[in-house]
Amino acid sequence: MSTSIQQTIEQASLDRAINELRKDLLDEAGPRISTMRNYRFAILTYDPEDEYKLRQRIHNLSDELTEKGWNVLSISLQKLLLDRLKAEDPRVLESIIRMEHRLYEKDPERSLTHLKNKLTRYVEGTDGIARDVIERIGRFADEHPDETNRTLFFLGRTGALYPFFRSSALLKHIDGKTRNLPVVVLYPGERKDRQALSFMKELSTDRDYRPRVYS
Predict the structure, then answer these.
(1) CA end-to-end span of the chain, whole Å?
(2) What angle do CA 202, 57, 17 make, to 5 degrees?
(3) pLDDT in tens, 98-113
(4) Considering only CA atoms, which of 199, 190, 186 is closest in space to residue 154?
(5) Neighbours of 137 (CB within 10 A)
(6) Angle, CA of 165, 168 and 169, to the nearest 5°
(7) Dist CA 9 CA 15 (whole Å)
(8) pLDDT tens for residues 17-46?
(9) Does the pLDDT of residue 199 top 50, yes or no?
(10) Please, where are the H alpha helices in the chain?
(11) CA dihedral 112, 114, 117, 121 (to 10 degrees)
(12) Domain coordinates of the chain in residue numbers?
C-alpha cells in the first residue's frame, strides 16, 4: 500500500473517531461516552504521526462545544511533567542530564534506563502526574459547579511522556476522583482489538482498559 493511500485511510479513521465522539458528547440525554454510569472515561486513538492533525481537530471540536455552552479544558500531560521538573532543584536536573549524556555515549540503552529510573517518580503512582490531573479537574469543576453535563476534559500530549508512561495506569489512579465528569484521553498508538492498545505503536499491547475506545 502506498504512503499516500495509507495516510488517507488514517485521516479518515481519525475523522470518523472524532465524529463519533462528537455525536456521543452531544447526545440529547447528555454525554454518553461510556456505558458505565460511574465511569465516564473514553480513549481516542490516533496514529502518532497525526499529532498535529489531532490537535487541530480537537481544537475545532472544543470551539464547537464552547459555542454550544460547554466548558472544555485541555490538559497537557507534557506541561504537567515540565512544571514538575521546573519546580525541582536545578542541580538535580543537571545531574540527571549529565549522567544521561555520559551513558548515551557508551550505551544508549543504559542511558534510557537511567532516565526511566529518574523520571518514574515524577510520572507514575498516586503522587505522580495523576495527582496533578486530579487537582486541575477539581479546580475547573469548582469554577463551573452547576454545569456538570456540559463539562469536558481532554488529556493530551501523552506521547511526550513516552516511554515513561502508560495511560491505563493513569486511569486507575484518577478513577473515582474526577467528579464523575467526562474525561477523554488522546492516545497516540494503535488499537489491536476491542480493548487492546499499543502506546505509540511501540510498546507491547496493553489490554488493561475499561473505557470506550474511539478509533
Answers:
(1) 20
(2) 60
(3) 888 887 788 878 877 8
(4) 186
(5) 21
(6) 65
(7) 10
(8) 999 999 999 998 888 888 777 889 999 999
(9) yes
(10) 3-25, 51-67, 77-86, 90-106, 108-123, 129-143, 167-174
(11) -90
(12) 3-214
Cell, residue 14: 481519525
For residues 94 and 115, give the distance between their C-alpha atoms in angstroms, rounded to a whole number: 12
- Residue 81's alpha-carbon distances to 15, 58, 76, 122, 124, in angstroms, are 29, 21, 9, 7, 11
CA 125 – CA 28 distance, rounded (Å): 37
Contacts made by residues 25-33, CB under 8 angstroms, sequence distance 24+: 25/65, 25/152, 25/182, 26/65, 26/68, 30/149, 31/149, 31/152, 31/182, 33/182, 33/184, 33/211, 33/212
DSSP 3-state assignment of 153? strand
Which residues have C-beta within 8 Å of that of residue 185, sequence separation ≥ 6? 41, 42, 43, 44, 155, 158, 167, 170, 171, 211
pLDDT, one tens digit per residue, over 6-17 is: 555 456 789 999
d(CA 98, CA 112): 13
Per DSSP bridges, beta strands 197-199 and 183-191 are antiparallel
Helix (H, G, I), strand (E, B) or coil at 46: strand
Residue count of the chain, please give it: 215
Is the distance from CB of 66 to CB of 144 less than 8 angstroms?
Answer: no
Copy the grid coordinates of residue 130.
Answer: 495523576
